[in-house]
Amino acid sequence: MAESPHTDVLVVGAGPVGTALGASLGGVGVRTVVIDARPDGAIESSRATTVHAGTLERLDDALSGLGAEVAASGAWARRSIMWHGRRKIGEIRWDGMPTRYAAMVNLPQAEVERMLRSRLTARGGHLRWGCRVTALEQDADGVTVDVDTATGTESLRARFVVGCDGARSTVRHACGASLPGATYPERFLLADVDLDTSLDETCTHVFVSTHGVLGLMPMPHGWRLNGTLTDDEHLTPDTLPELVRARLGRAAEWVDLHAVGWANDYRTHSRLVDRYRAGRVFLAGDAAHLNSPVGGQGMNLGIMDALDLGQRLASVVVDGADDAVLDGYEAARRPAAARVLRLSRSSTRQLVARSPVERFARDQLVRVAHRLPPVQRRLSVGQAGLR
Ligand SMILES: Cc1cc2nc3c(=O)[nH]c(=O)nc-3n(C[C@H](O)[C@H](O)[C@H](O)COP(=O)(O)OP(=O)(O)OC[C@H]3O[C@@H](n4cnc5c(N)ncnc54)[C@H](O)[C@@H]3O)c2cc1C
Prior knowledge:
Layout: E1 7-12, H1 16-26, E2 32-35, E3 50-51, H2 53-62, H3 66-73, E4 75-77, E5 79-84, E6 87-93, E7 104-106, H4 109-122, E8 126-128, E9 132-138, E10 143-149, E11 152-163, H5 170-174, E12 181-183, E13 187-197, E14 203-209, E15 212-218, E16 223-229, H6 240-248, E17 255-266, E18 269-272, E19 277-278, E20 281-283, E21 289-290, H7 298-317, H8 324-351, H9 356-369, H10 373-383
Parallel strand pairs: 1-2, 1-11, 2-8, 5-14, 11-20
Antiparallel strand pairs: 3-7, 4-7, 5-6, 9-10, 10-11, 12-18, 13-16, 13-17, 14-15, 15-16, 18-21, 19-20
The structure holds flavin-adenine dinucleotide.
């Protein structure tokens, strides 16, 4: 017979999603352990940059004012301006949104994770590094999880397990769920740089050109560049300045790029899991959905999953609510993910328009549409997750 559970909830993965979930559960008396395969908390690569207003408001409510702390550390972009060379095509105004966070708040993911982690420990959650889940099995009372550690293999047992273990989720595989969808044909570039510019530093700037797209986002220290790459372009810190110049076109004189901290290329996906729940096992964040970085939604969507599921698990574990509350998780979060995937697919398609006809049509559409208040509202409030 299986032994009784060691803990109420075992969260697999201490990225932003697992840490947010652990913090929300720890604070309301749910015995929670968060484990992660990484030997320590170091983050290898630069990833998300934006915490949207809807997420900040939710973090305030769920984690005692954490949204305000994140917002105070971030760089606020009040507008996102779209350019073709030196010609402004359109803009999204974040500063008109009905919220105390009327901006895109930009902060490196590593910094957001650090803040979430300190909330997790302050609220009584436990975090263990160097624990890689290899398999799991569930029965009527709980889930048994096999974990590899530096000192050998352990068996952990919990009433519920949540897979927040990212795109290649072991938990997803182990509970038989799949992640259907597609991989974008485009390659994307990502770089953290220092630059001098005459561009407005309280705005994000997106340049579209025949060479591709380039976004410049002000960060608390320096700028983040994000854009598209063609198959024959080779990205290194040395080739980056030329790739940037090509995309800026006649606006190149506005930007003097003088130090490249880090540059990398990557491919991205549009995928949504076939089920969020398998018995006592749940999936959240990148383990459940992947979308293009256009619109900066992935981490935001995942944190919102975590806070929704945290509330539901707490009501079952602490208040003895009916199990049906847990079925409500998928009902609430699948439509949100499907909407983000739809939005980011259409924005990505528009941005990477390949033919001259498509590019012309996109520029005309943006010129007209960005002036219409309902479109402005949909683009700002909708992307910020404020509905
Ligand atoms: C290049 C790039 C740019 C991005 N830009 C943005 C942006 O601007 N805005 C935005 O909102 N999102 C962005 N994203 C997406 C964002 O980074 C992810 O959505 C976010 O990291 C997902 O968080 P997560 O906690 O679900 O997964 P992850 O951050 O991937 O964390 C998963 C954790 O699980 C651990 N783990 C994995 N397997 C196991 C195992 N078997 N056992 C134990 N632990 C395990 C890993 O070590 C890791 O710590 C970007 C992503 C990329 C790649």
